[in-house]
Every structure is written in C-alpha cells, then in structure tokens.
Amino acid sequence: MAGDDRRDRGEGGLLLLSGLITLVFTRLGPRAGQAAAWCFLAGVVTGAPVVCLIGGAYVAELLGAGGRTAYVAALCLLVLVLAVRLGGVRTGTGLQLVLVAVLVTLVVVAVAGAAPGARAAHWTPFAPDGWAGVARAASPLMLAFVGWEAVAPLTARLRDPRRQLPRVVGTAFAVTALLYLGLAVATVAVLGPRAGGPVPLAGLLRVAIGGYGPVLAAAAVALTLAATHAYLTGATALATALAGGAGTRRGTAGVLAAVAATSALLLGAAWAGLVTTAQLVAVPTALFLLVYLGCLAAAVRLLAGAVRLAAGVACAVVALLLAGSGWAALVAAGVAVVAGTRGRPDPSARVRSRAPESRHNPEAGRSEPVDPGPASDVCGQSVTGP
After folding, report:
1. Is 111 helix (H, G, I), strand (E, B) or coil?
2. Strand partners for 360
3. Please, is 125 exposed, middle or buried when counting C-beta atoms within 10 Å of its C-beta (0-12, 13-18, 19+)?
4. How many whole angstroms separate alpha carbon 345 and alpha carbon 65?
5. Which phi and psi angles does 160 have, rounded to 5°?
6. Which of 146, 197, 199, 274 is 20 to 30 Å from 162 by CA-CA measure?
7. Taking a C-beta distance cutoff of 8 angstroms, is the pair 14, 233 a contact?
8. Residues 253-280: tens digit of each pLDDT
C-alpha cells in the first residue's frame, strides 16, 4: 500500500532518484550521497527557469512577438507550475503518456514533413568549429537526456527484470536516439542558417505544414509544464526525505520558494542581457552530470565483469562531459563540496521509516512489520518519473 500511495501522490520521480542516490550512499559513502542529493535539488532549482524559458520562446513565436515576450511568458509558465504544485494537483501516468505521445508525434511530423526541404549545401562547412566545438556542444545537450533515471522504478513492475529490463531500456534508448538524431539532422539540413534559433521545432513544422506549425509547436508548452511539474514534485519529495521525513508541506514550500527566488534572479539577469540562455543551461547540466557521475562511480564498485567495464567507460565519458562544462563544472563542484560537508544520513532510510510495510503472522495472530531490505529496493517502488 505504501508503494501505491506514493504512486497516487506522483512522488516516484524523486523517490526513484532517491533509489539511485542510495546507491551512491551505500557504495561511495554518506558524504558522496549527500552531495549527489543536493546536486540534484540544485539542478531542479536552476533548471526550472531554463525549461520555462524554452516554453516561453514558443509562446513568443506563436504570438509573433519580440524576444522580451519570451521572458514574460516564461515567468507566467513558471508561476503556473508553482501554483499547480503548491495546490497539490497531481499528474498521472496516463497524462504523462499522452503528453509524450504528443511530443513524439510533433517530432515525427516535423522531421518527415520538412524532409523535402533539405539542402546538402546546409552541411557545408561541416563542424565549422572543429571537434572542440562538438565537445563544447555535447555537454549542454546532456540536459535534453536528463530523466533517464526514471526507468529505475520499472523494475518493481516487471515479472522478470533481469530479462525484461535490458529490452525496455534498449528499446527506449533506440527510440529516443532515433528521434533526437532525426530532429538534429532535419534541423540542420532544412533550416540551415536558421537552425540556431530558439524554436527550431516550430521552424520545421512551418516548413512541413505551413502556418499551423507554430500553433502545433505551442503544444511544447504543455510538455514544458508537465516536465517541470514532475521534477518539482520529485524535488519536494527528496527534500522531505533529506529533512527526516517530517514537515512535508514545509519542505514543499521551501523548494518552491527556492525555485521562485532563483528563477526571478536568473530570468531577470537574462532579460537584462547579463547572461545568455546557453549560460543558464550550463549550470543545471553540470549539476545533473555530477549526479550521474556519482551514480556511475558507485555502479563501478557494485558491478562485475563486462557490465562493470561498461559502467567504467560511461563514467569516464560523463567525466569528460562534465569537464567540458567549464566554469559550470566548478559551480557544481562547489555545491557538491558544501553539501558533502553536511554529513546528513541516507534520505532513503528516512523514506523507509515513514512507510513501513507489514504482513499478517497467522501464528501470532497479528500483523508484524516487514524488513524492507536494502534502501535501494524500497526506493525502487516508485512511480513513473518525468
């Protein structure tokens, strides 16, 4: 029942992530786990305004307004998300699936419909900034892949995780990679010099279906709201766990207040031209990369054989991507160092202590608590992530 209750509350996104962070706690120590947890929270806090700004750019495109409209729209979207989260409105698995289906449909229509407008000349020169430019671009692109940790709780729903999970992850990765690569190729081949704009999907849809393109691209706003809401829900759950499982409402209000204050500061700085969108993207990307690095380092210590080697290679790649973040990597490292000195205990243990399971003992004639086992197993009983 505890697992079902968490599903209904939509907290799986972060109880799930707590499961991954528990891996860091158990394999790398409490300080590393604490650093990973706070890096994730900081990534959500600094990433929320970035996601809303991207959605705001599509609103501005839809209205045919100037760049400043994007910041106003981003602020409105952020206020809406915060109000929805503070009001406790829930987003179920069905709604998330519908939104994902809408996004996939938009990408497929954009790529396939705009394909006839591709021009080989748009690929010249290829990689004008060389491989160094490719390396610099790889780091911020990681922000698009944040959310892969959401596959972890599916192990609790599979009858044979050892056999089924590789298929699920492999299929999801193949589909996602195909969509991203298709969109990237179409953006360059069709839009050419216009590929660097803030709303490439709207540009492709305009080529594919005419003037309705920006209207359909505005559906990205709904996806923006859903993704931001999911991560805010998860962040408040993790913040509550870090606080000892008490004061849920206070923890929620604290996270939302931090998001509101940080967003006002960052969006205001972007409005004034003090920072660029690329710089805003760099910070949450580096923070999430540091979380991934900790999880992979813990996996290297946990696994054996070929999978351990694969985890080691992935760990090295993520470390290179983090190094490519430049100054943002230093910001993330600073957050990790400060958080690691707090020395707080494993948040998953606190989640476990709040929702103990029980079973009926016919010999004793009463229900007795069940030892939930390792903390990672408990945190794995979560719901669909963002």
Report:
1. helix
2. 367
3. exposed
4. 50
5. -135, 80
6. 146
7. yes
8. 778 888 889 988 998 898 888 988 888 8
